[in-house]
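To whoever picks this up:

The parser on our side crashed when reading a file containing two proteins. I've narrowed it down to the boundary between the first structure block and the second sequence. Both blocks are reproduced below exactly, byte for byte. First block:
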Amino acid sequence: MWKLHRYYLRELVINFGITFLVMFAVVLVSLVTRGINRSQGGGLLDAALITVLWTLDSFPHLLTITFLLATVLTYARAAQDRELIAIRAAGIGPRVPMMPALLVGIVLSIGASFANHYVLPEVHYMKYRVIADVARNVFTNLKLGSDRILIPGTGFVMTCAERQGSDFLDCTVYCPGDRRIQGVSSPIVRVDRISIPPVGEHSESVDIVLSGFRDPIPSPFAQASSEEFKIQLDPHGIADRGRRPDRDDDVRSDQLLGEVMREVHPFPEAATYTLLRRCGFSLMPVLLAPIGYCIAELMRHRGRVLALSVSLLPLVLFYFGEAIGARVLHSTQSPWSALIPLLLLVVFGVPLCWRQLRR
């Protein structure tokens, strides 16, 4: 029996590894644009790290989908080659070739449980904070990456012809209303240099310095002022606009459970829902192992493509249950709605496995 187990175990692990790497690469490439957009205020390495963290955050979904596809591929190939029929003809029950899938599912469920409860909350928290909130939000709210920069609290709008690091050269500043630069009567001011220093997480102020300002109307006697005009801003006041609050997805399960049991969590039903949802994703590989085997054996005369197509049905049911469970939680405040996806999967899988394994 061990030779039979080892034979399917090796093939299943190889198929799972290849499928997981391919789907991980697909998700990684699809999130490059999001990583670049989220890295405003940072560099290339920040964009790459954000992209990787966003991809890792999809680990529960990748694990669920790739394991089911790998299981169906492995046993659909065995069914088409008449291996499963030969095993049955030798008097060996169908549970014996299914056992490698169940063993891999158990191992993956244990790993997924640790990842979902302890690792992925940290990843989910870090993917929004590769760049400090203050620095990123100041960069975004001031629109330092565009050609039109709005200075909050003053109403000033500036454009520049050239940029060198934190210095903006040959700038034009619009000063609306009665907010004028001292010594300049026009609401439009030409400025030789505007310095906006980089903002760190612990910065107490942002000092914007305008050097060499003058009226925009050219005059043979007009000279740029040698004085400096300084604008001081509070970076935390700028950064707090659009700041993302912490959520249950950012908190590890032990801490979340402790807050619920101590009755200090503001929304205990939502926290319990999050805990049960993580448990549901952790159990998915164990539940999908027999379902994948039975689908592959059921489709033995119809080819692997049809077997893979039918394998999408339990995934559709699971994610349909995810959507329904979130709506039920919103309507009834019952955290047990997190188990609806598992219930739908059991309703689909029990008759299928009962029929195939007892046939």
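<<boundary where parser fails>>
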Amino acid sequence: MTDSEWKERWHEVERFRLMARETTDPVAAALLLDIVLDLEAELNELVDVEAQGLPRFGAAA
């Protein structure tokens, strides 16, 4: 991934985190926090994959 792709992913996580903090609906906040957890897990997985030099999931061989 390029630096701009990493930054875009990180900003996406931050946008959802901010929405979760700003919402007054508890159900919406819980769903947004769940999205944040999923995005963070995906981002951490990408970091691990790139650190190991392995091909990304879904990448054509």
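After patching the parser it read the second block fine. The CA atoms of residues 11 and 55 lie 24 Å apart. The longest helix spans residues 26-52.
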